[in-house]
């Protein structure tokens, strides 16, 4: 039975990656700006003393403005670093100058002295290929975020383009639902 959702997820991931690649650049730019503005206005962001956020890549909702603003606001900022297959650490980042290309070409801190567990973080921003308005998330397939969030997903918000929302996302036993999904049109549920 476990293989059925995995195959469904692989099929949907292929379809949605194609849809993601087809998103017009203007839409990605404008929707990304709206998502960042909405995020910075959220009470969850304003209250957060510590924030974990992914470093956005092409065709993902941008996190660059939020990253810069969080550092300016004096928040403890953490970013992901892949250390083993399927294992990710939250590494403290003090400056954008500390970032260098790492696993999968994603910028990561060059060095670090501090890490945090998911349950220690006030706000966790999560990427996706697509998501449902009720918090089901289809990631990139490595399981990094599901393992990281296993004991601390209650402060997580998935950033997703509204065009990439779907109701029919299959979930496997180890998949973690996200309590909130933020698009350029608003916060769900």
Written description of the protein model:
With 189 residues, this protein is an alpha/beta fold. Helices cover 30% and strands 24% of the residues. The chain has a single domain, classed as Rossmann fold. It contains five helices and twelve strands. Strands 6-3-2-1-7-10-11-12 form an eight-stranded mixed β-sheet. A two-stranded antiparallel ribbon has the order 4-5. The longest helix is centred in the N-terminal third of the chain and has 19 residues, at 3-21. It is globular and about 40 Å long.
Sequence-ordered SSE layout with sheet pairings:
Blueprint: H1 3-21, H2 25-41, H3 43-47, E1 50-52, H4 64-72, E2 76-84, E3 87-93, E4 99-101, E5 107-109, E6 115-116, E7 123-126, E8 130-131, E9 137-138, H5 144-149, E10 156-159, E11 180-183, E12 186-188
Parallel strand pairs: 1-2, 1-7, 7-10, 10-11
Antiparallel strand pairs: 2-3, 3-6, 4-5, 8-9, 11-12
CATH superfamily: NagB/RpiA/CoA transferase-like
- Structural shape: globular
- Briefly note the structural class of the backbone: alpha/beta
| Share of helix, binned | 25-40%
Sheet with most strands: 8 strands, mixed
**Count of DSSP H/I helices:** 5
The radius of gyration is: 16 Å
Task: Count the E strands.
Answer: 12
User: Could you give the order of strands across the largest sheet?
Assistant: 6-3-2-1-7-10-11-12
N- to C-terminal separation?
29 Å
Strand content bin? 15-25%
Count of discrete domains: 1
